[in-house]
Amino acid sequence: MAVCISIIGKDNAPLYLTTTDLDKELELQYRVHAALDVVEEKCQPVSKGTPDSKELYLGLLYSTETHKIYGFVTNTKIKFVIVVDSGNIALRENEVRAMFRNLHMLYTDAVCNPFYAPGEPLTSVKFDRAVQKIMGGNA
Amino acid sequence: MSVDATVLPSELLVAPQPLIGLCGLDTKHNLVHKAIWDAFSANRKTDRASVQFKLLPLGYEFPVAKPKRASYEWYQPKGILKRNWMLKHLHVLPAVVVLFQDMERNDPQWSEKQVQCASAMQSLKSALQERNTRLCLVLLQKSSPLPPGEDLLASERAASLTTACGINNKMLFILPHSEHLMGYTLRLESAFLDMAQSYYALMSKRVRAHRDQLTVAHTSLKIRHQFKLGFIAEIRQDFSTGLKHYTQAYGTLEEIRITDTNCLEIKTIAGFLNYKLCRLMFKLKQPRDAINYFTTHIEKYKNRIGFKDLIFEHYAWLSTQHSMFADLFCEAIKNGLPALQTQNPGIYYNKAAEFTMKRKEAFLQSSAMLLSPTDPTTPTGMPNNNTMTLYTEYFGIRAVKTGDPISEQQTNTLIRENEKLFNHSNAIINLLSLARAQFKIYKCPRFRNKLAIDMAEEYFKHGDHANALTLYSVMLTDYRREHWSAIFSDVLLKTLRCAFLMASITDFISCSIEALSLRVNCEQKERIIVLENLWKVFKGAAPISQGQSAPEIIERWENAFPAIKSPIPIDMDKLTKLIEMYISFEHLELKNDDTINVQLVIKLLTDVPIKIHHCAIILTDGARFFKIPASRCKSFRSLLEVFESRKNKQQQEIQSQHFDPNLKLEPDLYYELHFYTEAYQFLENTQLRVTRIEAQMGSEKLAIQLTKSAFFTRNPFRHYTRRRDLDDNIEINPLCYITPTFHLSTQCNLGKETQMLVNEYYPIATTINNPYNVFLQNVSLNISVPSSLRNQVFLTTDLSPGRQKLHSQIQIDTGELSMQSSNSALYYVFSLVETPIALLQKTSYVIDIQRPKTASTMTQLESGSANSAESSPENIRNFIPPTDIRPLTVSPPVQIEFLDESRLRKTREDTINIECALDFRFSARFYTLSKRPLTKVYRGENFLLRANIEVRSPVDIDILETYFICDHNLVQSTYSFKRKKFTQTYRSRDKLEDVITLRTNAASNDWITSKDFERTKSGDGIQSELFSRSRHARKLNAIKNMARDGVVGDAIDVAASAHMNKHLMGKIPNNMTIINNNAGSANSLLLAANSHSSMTASSSSFDEKFNSTQAGTVTDGDNVDTSLANTASVRALNPRVVFNKAIEAIQATGHCRGFFKRIVTTEPETQAITAHQQQQPNFGVYCIRWRRSGHKEENESKFLIHGLDIEEPPLNIYCTIEEKMFVKMPMTYKVVLRNPTSNVLHLVATLSISIADNFICSGHKQLDISIYAYSEKELVYNLYPLCVGWVNLPELTLEYNTKADPSKNDSHNTVLSELVQRSIPKKVFVLPPLKQQLK
C-alpha cells in the first residue's frame, strides 16, 4: 500500500526509514527529506494567540507524478512520513490516517522499550516487522 | 521560425493590443515628427491605454485581403490555426491608419498641400481595399486652433480637405505641436482607440458571420473561429468574452479524435488555448481555476504521446506547458497574487525540468535505438536547412505526406536531428535554477537543496564537472547538518567523484577523509579504496577510480599537484565525525611550578587504519595560543583499560612509549596521548584551555593539517547507550587553573577566651608572615568594615587617651618584608552593637614579575598566525567555552594587578570573623517621688530616674564608675546620700541599680537647645549661665515635688533602629563621631566631632548638639576642639573621633553643658525643629565606665535616656518633712505651694486628721490662701507622732476657692487633687524614740 514509511526525529534526522523498492530508496529519501519543508511550514503556529491544534495528522504534504506524500507529527515533534504511489487511486485518506495511527502506536511501543535510547535510530526487528505489515496494507 | 513544435510562439505570449499605424511621420529628419512619435510610443506606462503604435513608412504594403469564400460547405481546412494570423493582426494590419500632414490652417499654399494630402490618402485607401481599416488625418499645426466656429477660414478649409480626401470630418484631427503635446497626444490616442475598438468589433462580427455558415463537420474551423473571436476580444481588452471563446474552442478541440498524425497539432492548439485560458484566468483573479484547468489539461494530454519515435517531443511539450504555466503564475504573483508553499511556481518549474530530463532521456534512448543498426554517419550528413522543409502554414502540422512511411521516417530523422541541436542540459539547469529561486521565496530549503543536487547531477552529466563540484560541495554542508546519512553519503560520493574528475586536490582529500567515517554508508572495501587513493594523492600520484583513469584525468592531476601548497588545512569540525575523542587536564588546579599534563584519548570512527604525525594541541590562556606537541602515547584495547592505567599511574609511566612521530591509529584501539609542559610558562591566575588539536597526515610531498576543536559535549542519554563507551565514567577537566602563589600568610590572635564586647576597643594583632624566599615590597594590610555594619562598627589603630579616630577602613602599611620574615600589625575594633562582625582583610604586596618563559617544549603561536583558521567565525565560536565549564571558584581569591612592566601587585581577600558580645543590658525608668511610674513630668517637679544595669559580659568586668550626664535643662541631685561603690568585680547576670533625682527647669516648649543657647549668646553676649537663668527665671522655681513614676522611653524598636541606621548611612557626614550605643535598648548616642571646623577652639567651641535619632543619637557637633580632634595620626579615609569619656566630650564643647535634644540628625534644621516639637526631649546620657578584670584599658558604655513630656503644672507643691521622725518628737511638716502661673490663685487648704489619730497636729485646719503670680506660700504644720511604724500622715486637700475665683470648677479641683496625691507623701515611718530621749 505504502511505498515508503519513515520516522524522523525532532532534529529532522531520520530514525527509521523503510521502502518497498530498494532501487528507488535514495530518490524516496530525497522526497521524504524535502517533505520536511512542508511539515515545518505546517507545524508553524498560525498566530500567537491560537493554541496548537490537537490534530497530529498533517494530510497530504505534496504530490509528484509518481508519489503522494503524507505527513503526521506527534506531540514530541516526531514526524512520520508515508509515501504512497500516486497510481493507487483506491487508497482513501481515511486509510492513510489509519496507517499513521497504527504507526504512532508502534512507535510509542518501540520507544517504551527501556533499551532504546531516545534520539537513536530505531533498529528493533519487531518494530520493523510490524511496519512492513503496515506497508503491505494489512496492519 | 523554430521547427520545435512544442515551443509556444511569441505572438501567443504577448498580451494582444489594438494596432494603430501612423504614417506620414518622418522621424529621422523632422524633429517635430520625432517628438510626436515619441509622445505616442515612448514611455508607455500602465496608466495609458494598451495600444500598439506602429510607424508605417511610405508605401507600406498592407497584406492583401483574401477573397471571401461564398460557402464553406466543401471547404476542408488543412489545419486549425494558421501561423501568420496572429502575427498579422498583432503587428501587420493596423486597425486604424493615421496620416500625419504638416498643414497650417492659414497656409498660403493650402490648396497644393490639400491635393498632396488627398493623394496620399487615396493611396492608403487603395492599399487597404477590402479592409475595414479606419483612416484618419491629423494636421500638424504650430498654433493651437481657435474654438470651433470662430475661425471661419479654418473650418472652411477643413471642410474642403475632408471632401477632397473623401473622409468623414470626424476623421480629421488637428495636432498643435508647439505646446501641450502630451495632452493632445493622449486625446488623440483615445480617439484612435475608439476607432480601433469599432474596427475590432466589426471584425469579430465578421468572424461570427463566418461561423454561422459552418456545419457540424467543420470542427477545426469552429475552433479557429472561436480562437479568433477570443483573440479579438482580448485585443479589445474584453477578457471575460475572450475567456468564453477560448473555453469553447478548447471544448471543441476535445471533440476531435486524436490519432498519431494529428496528435501534435491537437496538443499544440490545446497548449495554446490552455495558455490563453490560464493567462486570462490569472488576469481575472481566478488563480484556483487556472491551476485546476492546467492540471486537468495536463492530465488529459499526458498520455497522448503521438509517434512513439518522437516521444521526446511529447515530453518537450509537457515541459513547455509547465514552464509556461509557471511563468504565468510568476507574473500573477508579481501582480499581487499570494502563493503558498504547496502551490507555487517553483513546483511547475521543477516539473518542467523533470519533463525536460525525460525528454533528454527519451531522446537519447530513441536515438540509441535508431542509430545502433544504421550507419552513424547518415544523420550527420543531413544538411541543417532541411528542417525548413517541414514548415507549413499551420501550427502543429508538418509537411509530411501522411501514410508514407519513408517520408515519415525521414521527417522523424529530421526532427531528431533538430532535437540534437537542443541543449537539454542548459534547459534543465535553467528551469531548475528558476525553480530554486521560487522555492527560496516559499521557504523550502530542502526542496531547494534537492534541486541543487539535480542541477549538479545535470552539470555532471553534461560534463561540466567544475560547476557540479561547486554545487555538490555547497550542498554537502547542508546535508551534513541534516544527518540523513543515506542522502549525505550519496552527495559525498558524487562530490568525491567530481573532485576526482576535476583533480581538485583539496576537495578530493577532504571528501576522502569524510568518506572514511563510519557514518557514511560505505562498505569497508570501498573505504579501503578511498584510503588507498588518498595515500596515492599524498604520494603525488593520481588516484584510480574504477578503472576510469583516462589519460586526460591523470594529466589534470599531474598539473594540479605543483599548484597545491602543503600542508592543506582541513577543519575536522566541519566534517562528519571521523574521530571520537576527549581531552582532559590531569589536574584542575596547578601550582606555578608544576607540570601541566594534558591527556587526549582518541578512537577512530572508521574501520580502516589512519596514520598521523605531528600531533599537537593548542593551549590558550585566553589571550595567547601555545602549541604543544605530543610526547607520550599508549594504546588500549578498551576504555576500561584507559581508566585502569590511569589508576595505577606509576605503571603507566613506565609502559607508555614516547610518541612515535608516525602514529598509526588502528580502528579498534584507543590511544592516549600525553602532552607535557611546565606551568611556570604561563601567568599565574590564568585558566588554560585546549582550543584545538592538530595533526598531520600524509607524506612529505603532500600532507594535510587536520584541526579539530577540543570542544567537548557529552551526548544526551549517554548513560543508556552501552555501545558508546568513550564518554561514560570519564572525569574531564576541561580547564586548568594555575593557582597563584600568595607569598604572605596572616594570622590573627582571635582567641576564644577573649571575646569582644560591645563598647570595647578590642585589640586584634595580625601577624604577617613571609615564608618564601622572595622579597616583598609595599606589604600592606587593609581592613574594612562591611557596608552593612558601617556606623556601628569602627576600626582604629590609635588608643591615645581621650579620643580615638574611628574609621570604617584602615590600612596598615608594613613596608617591605624580606625573605622568611614576619611582621605584625595591631588595630582595634569597636562595636556599638551586639553582632557577629566579619571584617574584610585585604593583604597585598608588590613583587617583581617572574616573566613567563617559553620553554622548548612548546611554541607560542603568533597572534596573527595564530592561525588564519582562527579568525574564521567557526573557530571563534568554538573558543567560547561551553557554560558548563565556566571558571571554577578558587579560594582565597588572589587578584593580580600589573603595576608596570616589571612589578605586579597581588592582593588576597580574607574575612576575619569576630563575635561581639553584649556588655550591659541597661534599662531605665522614671518614677515620681512617691515611686509610681511617671507618665508626664511637670516643670519644677522632682522625679526619680532609676537605672537598672545587668552585666551581660561573658567575662568578668570591673565597673569603675557610673554617672549620669543630664541635659542642660535638668537639675540633677543624688537621691540618697549613700556613696556608690564600684570596686567589686562583676560577673555576668549581676545587677546594679542607680537612682537619681531630677528636676526640670523648663517645660518641653521652653526647652533650651544648643541652638537657642548659641543664638542668645552671640546675640547679646550674656554669660551663658546667667543667660539661661535670666531667661527662664520666671519659670525656674525650686519647688519640691512629691514624685510620681514614669517610664523612660527606653525600649526602642530594634527594627526601626536598623532601618534608621541604614537610612542614615548615606547621610551621616564623614566627620561624625560616635560616642555611644546602648545595645540593650538600642539607644545610642553619637557625638560628632567636626574636625574640619575652621573656628578656633577657644572662641567658638560652644556648641555641641546631641542629636539623637531613633536608632542612635548622633551628635553633630559643629565645632569641637580642632587641635584635639586632629591629633589622630592614623591615615584613614574617614577620620572620626570618639570621645571615649562622655564627660570629656561635654567638656570638649567648651561651655560644659550637655544639650541633649532629640533631633533627627542629618535632616535639615527646620525639620529638626518640628521633630523637637513633636518628640520627647532627651534627658541625658547614662555612662558606665568599666574594664575587664585584670586589664587596664577602660571602656565606657553610654546609654541615652529619652525623656518625657514636660508640662506646665497649675500648681507646684513641694513637701518637706524631716528626714527622720521619732515618736513623741514634734516635727515640722511644711508644704510649699508655688504658683507658676501669671494669675492669682485662690485656694482652700484643709488638713484632715480625723482618720488618723497617730498625730497631734497644730496649724490651720482650714485656710483660704491666695498666691500671687510666681510667688509661693508656705503651709506649716507641727506634727507630733504618737506611735511607731508606718503611719499615715494627715491628709492635706486643696481646693479652689470658688468664691474668690468663680472661673474654677470641679474639674479643676480634680486636677488639683491629683497633683496633691502625686506630690504629697501619704505615709511616714516613725522611729522609736532615741536613747537619750528615753533617758
UniProtKB/TrEMBL annotation, chain A:
<dbReference type="Pfam" id="PF04628">
    <property type="entry name" value="Sedlin_N"/>
</dbReference>
<dbReference type="GO" id="GO:0006888">
    <property type="term" value="P:endoplasmic reticulum to Golgi vesicle-mediated transport"/>
</dbReference>
<dbReference type="InterPro" id="IPR011012">
    <property type="entry name" value="Longin-like_dom_sf"/>
</dbReference>
<dbReference type="InterPro" id="IPR006722">
    <property type="entry name" value="Sedlin"/>
</dbReference>
<keyword id="KW-0813">Transport</keyword>
<protein>
    <recommendedName>
        <fullName>Trafficking protein particle complex subunit 2-like protein</fullName>
    </recommendedName>
</protein>
<comment type="similarity">
    <text>Belongs to the TRAPP small subunits family. Sedlin subfamily.</text>
</comment>
<dbReference type="GO" id="GO:0048471">
    <property type="term" value="C:perinuclear region of cytoplasm"/>
</dbReference>
<keyword id="KW-0931">ER-Golgi transport</keyword>
<dbReference type="InterPro" id="IPR044760">
    <property type="entry name" value="TRAPPC2L"/>
</dbReference>
Automatic annotation (TrEMBL), chain B:
<dbReference type="InterPro" id="IPR025876">
    <property type="entry name" value="TRAPPC11_C"/>
</dbReference>
<comment type="function">
    <text>Involved in endoplasmic reticulum to Golgi apparatus trafficking at a very early stage.</text>
</comment>
<dbReference type="InterPro" id="IPR021773">
    <property type="entry name" value="TPC11"/>
</dbReference>
<comment type="similarity">
    <text>Belongs to the TRAPPC11 family.</text>
</comment>
<dbReference type="Pfam" id="PF11817">
    <property type="entry name" value="Foie-gras_1"/>
</dbReference>
<keyword id="KW-0931">ER-Golgi transport</keyword>
<feature type="domain" description="Trafficking protein particle complex subunit 11">
    <location>
        <begin position="262"/>
        <end position="517"/>
    </location>
</feature>
<feature type="domain" description="Trafficking protein particle complex subunit 11 C-terminal">
    <location>
        <begin position="1243"/>
        <end position="1293"/>
    </location>
</feature>
<dbReference type="Pfam" id="PF12742">
    <property type="entry name" value="Gryzun-like"/>
</dbReference>
<keyword id="KW-0813">Transport</keyword>
<dbReference type="GO" id="GO:0005794">
    <property type="term" value="C:Golgi apparatus"/>
</dbReference>
<protein>
    <recommendedName>
        <fullName>Trafficking protein particle complex subunit 11</fullName>
    </recommendedName>
</protein>
<keyword id="KW-0333">Golgi apparatus</keyword>
<dbReference type="GO" id="GO:0016192">
    <property type="term" value="P:vesicle-mediated transport"/>
</dbReference>
